[in-house]
Design a protein that fits this description.
Rossmann fold, eight-stranded antiparallel β-sheet, 36% helix, 3 domains, alpha/beta, single chain, binds 2-deoxy-2-amino glucitol-6-phosphate, 20 helices, globular, 26 strands, Glutamine Phosphoribosylpyrophosphate, subunit 1, domain 1
Length: 617
């Protein structure tokens, strides 16, 4: 997610803007920039890389004291790339053709390509690969050619034409006594200060200047002047929005009020999944704009090799089920550190799917290179735009999870599955194994998942109570069958890595071949029960472990029968197609692991011995 800061008032703007960007660094970024009004024009300074690069450029213009220059109005941005690799040109703010309008944006403009094409036919020229740049040109188009009386009218008209998510800051050289902010699905707050007014993506950016904050709601617009703020809806109708007093300290503000980044990121899952799927679904069909894989390429694929580590590897096991079920292509899944050294059978008819949140995991990178060396075509599913794996793969499909700060991967896994489903459905259509009409049914189910995740999050207290009863467990088993076994791998890892409790994922049907000897009075067993066709078999496995004294937490859909008869506690998730169930059923497991770790007093966001990105062998 990108970071936005804006200010208008009686104080020097640049130190406020830069200080705010520093307060947003924790969110992750790959470039930064500022736009400010001076001497009748808008100047933009933006740089790829760390904030120090931007500060160096500003000091080159203003000297060490950024308070000089009489600048009292500006907007600033830290970019987390979604469209277009990190670069100076792709950094925000973006200027309109005349240079009189500057825009910063957090979110995804889903119909930017259509808008870009129509503006291009009107003669507009684009200098970046971003979706955001279309907003700057579209506002100017309405401001200069239509009946829009002023900047606000042009902005409101633009908001009516763009689809997707946005938090926007808009500056106009022809209107230097105010600037405009707007939000839909991406957070944006307005700060009311004694010496001016602010916008920010997150409260920490402005907390040192004011604790009086207006939280903009979806489809609301604010016009900020030095002496006041007006809030309205996107039709221009005034909205009465009362400020709130923020008494958080800076650290808790960075977590959005959550105790840990991990819980904040779990709660971002509905938005992250929506951002990953919605921009790629048009009229029920799937459009993966940046993918060069053609129907001919797909027809040549004889087998698929999935390569990843940790949580990403577990997403790969779900992918195997989905691809084999719908595409009927054999799929192998390997941990990268094993794949590299087993002299794998890979050739030009192998598609190597490489999954990585960071895009920098050394084992995964090396394994991808080994697959490439042996002739495979590589397809990466990555969260960090422009990361090493993304740059080297033949194709890359980005998850839109936004920065993941907590070491334990949560929203990244949900969005990896979302990306896997998009790819699977697309491959199935290209192979002729799925009609466009069937694809539309599947994409409709995908688009419904964010709402189901919201309900799961609202029921989290069931898990909080169960975790409180069992956080002293010495060992926990996650057992499942089919996709529920693949899912159990991730549930087990989550618990291990943040609570330090030994755990094991086991195929339900395999227990009787030895491991059931470990089940004794009080052993805790977690069972995802989302695979309808295997439910009776799993009920049998639950009876086996219950007979030996186990305590069982079941995770099942609303309409699943019998589970209440055999489980000690059942967490219900909304009904969902079994193929898509792991994307929902993982979240209760993440929450369970979180509450256990919190009860044990563990360092949830930074577990011992672990790093967020493992760039060593
Ligand atoms: C997941 O919670 C862990 N932090 C770890 O297993 C991680 O998934 C693994 O290191 C792979 O990282 P990547 O997705 O960035 O490649």
């Amino acid at each position: 997610m990108c970071g936005i800061v804006g200010y208008i008032g009686s104080r020097p703007a640049l130190p406020i803007l830069m200080g705010g960007l520093h307060r947003l660094e924790y969110r992750g970024y790959d470039s930064a920039g500022v736009a400010f009004f001076q001497e009748g024009r808008i100047d933009v300074v933006k740089r790829k890389g760390r904030l120090s690069n931007l500060e160096g450029a500003l000091r080159g213009q203003f000297g060490d004291d950024l308070s000089s220059g009489g600048i009292r109005l500006g907007i600033a941005h830290t970019r987390w790339a979604t469209h277009g690799a990190p670069s100076d040109e792709n950094s925000h703010p973006h200027l309109s053709a005349s240079g009189r309008i500057a825009v910063v944006h957090n979110g995804i403009i889903e119909n930017y390509l259509e808008i870009k094409r129509s503006l291009t036919t009107l003669g507009y020229r684009f200098v970046s690969e971003t979706d955001t740049e279309v907003v700057a040109h579209l506002i100017e188009h309405h401001f200069t050619t239509d009946a829009c009386r002023d900047l606000l009218s042009a902005v409101l008209r633009t908001l009516g034409e763009i689809e997707g998510s946005y938090a926007l800051g808009v500056l106009c050289a022809d209107d230097p006594d105010s600037f405009i902010a707007a939000r839909k699905d991406s957070p944006l707050v307005v700060g009311l200060g004694d010496h001016g007014n602010f916008i920010a993506s997150d409260i920490p950016a402005i907390l040192e200047h004011t604790r009086e904050v207006l939280i903009l709601e979806d489809k609301e617009v604010a016009v900020l002047r030095a002496d006041g703020v007006r809030v309205m809806d996107t039709l221009g109708r005034p909205v009465d929005r009362r400020p709130m007093h923020v008494d958080w300290d800076i650290e808790s503000a960075e977590k959005g009020g959550y105790e840990h980044f991990m819980m904040k990121e779990i709660h971002e899952e509905p938005r992250a999944v929506r951002d990953t799927v919605a921009p790629r679904i048009h009229g029920g069909g799937i459009r993966l704009d940046d993918i060069s894989l053609t129907a001919e390429d797909v027809a040549r694929i004889q087998r698929i090799q999935i390569i990843a580590c940790g949580t990403a590897n577990h997403a790969g096991h779900v992918a195997r089920h989905a691809i084999e079920s719908l595409c009927r292509i054999p799929v192998d899944v390997d941990v990268a550190s094993e794949f590299r050294y087993r002299d794998p059978i890979v050739d030009g008819r192998t598609l190597a799917i490489v999954i990585s949140q960071s895009g920098e995991t050394l084992d995964t990178m090396a394994a991808m290179r080994e697959a490439k060396r042996r002739g495979a075509r590589t397809f990466a599913i990555v969260n960090v735009v422009g990361s090493s794996i993304a740059r080297e793969a033949d194709d890359v499909l980005y998850t839109m999870a936004g920065p993941e700060i907590a070491v334990a991967s949560t929203k990244a896994y949900n969005t990896q599955l979302a990306a896997v489903y998009l790819l699977t459905f697309r491959l199935a259509v290209l192979l002729g194994r799925m009609t466009e009409a069937e694809c539309a049914i599947w994409t409709g189910k995908l688009l419904a998942l964010p709402e189901s995740l919201e309900r799961i999050l609202s029921d989290r207290e069931v898990l909080q109570r169960f975790a409180y009863e069992h956080f002293n467990a010495r060992s926990v088993f996650f057992i499942g069958r089919g996709l529920d076994f693949a899912l159990s791998m991730e549930g087990s890892l989550k618990l291990k890595e943040i609570s330090y409790i030994h755990s094991e994922a086991y195929a339900g049907g395999e227990l009787k071949h030895g491991t059931i000897a470990l089940i004794e009075e009080g052993t805790l067993v977690v069972c995802p029960l989302t695979q309808t066709s295997l439910l009776d078999k799993m009920i049998g496995n639950i009876r086996e472990v219950k007979a030996r004294g186990a305590v069982v937490l079941g995770i099942a859909c609303d309409s699943a029968p019998k589970v209440d008869d055999v489980c000690d506690t059942v967490f219900r998730i909304p009904d969902v197609d079994p193929l898509l169930a792991p994307l929902l059923a993982v979240t209760p497991m993440q929450l369970f692991a979180y509450y256990v770790a919190v009860n044990k007093g563990c360092d949830v966001d930074k577990p011992r011995n672990l790093a967020k990105s493992v760039t060593v062998e």
